[in-house]
Amino acid sequence: MDIEVDVNGVKIAFKRGKKSIPLIYIHGSGCDSSLWDKQLEEIGGFAIDLPGHGFSDDTNINSVYDYAFYVANAAKNLFDKAVFLGHSLGGAIVQEIYLNFKDCVLGIILVGTGARLRVLPEILDGLEKGDEKVIDKFVEMSFANAAESMKNDMKKRFLENIEVLLRDLKACDKFDLLEKYKIGEIKIDVPTLIIVGDKDKLTPVKYSQFFKSTIPQAELVVIENAGHMVMLEKVNEFNKAILDYLSKYNLL
Ligand code: COA
After folding, report:
1. Which of 45, 58, 238, 251 would bridge with 23, disulfide CB 3.0–4.6 Å?
2. Predicted TM-score of the model (pTM)
């Protein structure tokens, strides 16, 4: 791993991209920093391994906030302020960072995520029982038109991390800021980009449209023919949206 920092005695690892720009990528449930290889190569920035994932130590994690604490404090070792880009669970973490550690936030990018992330009970139950068929279903729901090899890689990754995947999905299932946005208790006032695949079955486009309706300055990019794993399925379109955002705010 390229960089390791210490947060309260927990080692947190980052992968460094081609340019050291203040952009922190946060992966979703059961994944790790390698999810962002194509973005690190073309755009730059730093991809974190959440505690218990990739090369980072594990620690006691019970909620999205717990992850946000480690990401925000790890990122402070690299930059005073950064853009936080999160996918799915990672997008929930970005929202908790904005709410609790706003001093380190330059901007946010919400990818395939939502203000509430309830998980299908059959997925949680199946994972509790270690049922491999549930992983197959979850992987199928994660992609629109991906090659079998891409799906198999994801399945392997999930099978190797089944306990952590379950922990992550339980944290997602408890995450719910929907009402707080609706009543205006949460107002996001930093540069915001929202990206979603038009065929996302895990976090439907509707969730991103909701963000757009409550964050007036946000830009929403819906990428065609892409599912939940939009950064893997549509690399060019995805990277273009990020590069446009970064150049608009002079962050490249
Ligand atoms: N943003 C905006 N609206 C949201 C939302 C979000 N993040 N999450 C839920 N809602 C809305 C729904 O659209 C619905 O609105 P409606 O009544 O106008 O149709 C309402 O809140 C209730 O949502 P619903 O989906 O019926 O119930 P739920 O939020 O309790 O979730 C599930 C039940 C799990 C069956 C469903 O959310 C689902 O299919 N999720 C996707 C699959 C999954 O497991 N994803 C994993 C994400 S990590």
Report:
1. 45
2. 0.97
